[in-house]
Amino acid sequence: MSSALDRLKNITSKISSYEMSRKENLKILEKLYIEIGINKKVDYFSELFDFKAINLSGASLLNENLGEIKEGKYLQILAIGYDKDAVVKSKNISLGYFGRAESVDVELKDKIVEFIIRYRFEKSFMTLEHYYEMLVPFNKK
Q: What is the value of pTM for the model shown?
């Protein structure tokens, strides 16, 4: 019986830790949204999450070489918008263009990479919540 209680305590602790991390992540993400100028393209912070995804060109987002510059490329933040009523359903929208990747200040580049990772972290929680809610009708069976 105590092992079941221990597992429950462990799960509760992880959930609590995730929620605290999520709240802190959102605070930092909103700060970065202003610092790197995304607020000039997206009027309200909450509107960021209307995009299907936000990607980065010119620097790596892979774990093994996170933030590494791609020579000859341009550093740009691209959002993928989606309009279900349009003929072309999705389109790329530039949220920030920063010039040749190798010319961008390292501190700015690092903030941009951090912004993308933090956005994806929050977006993953939103996706999880969405699918959790979609399962509700199946749980009544």
A: 0.83
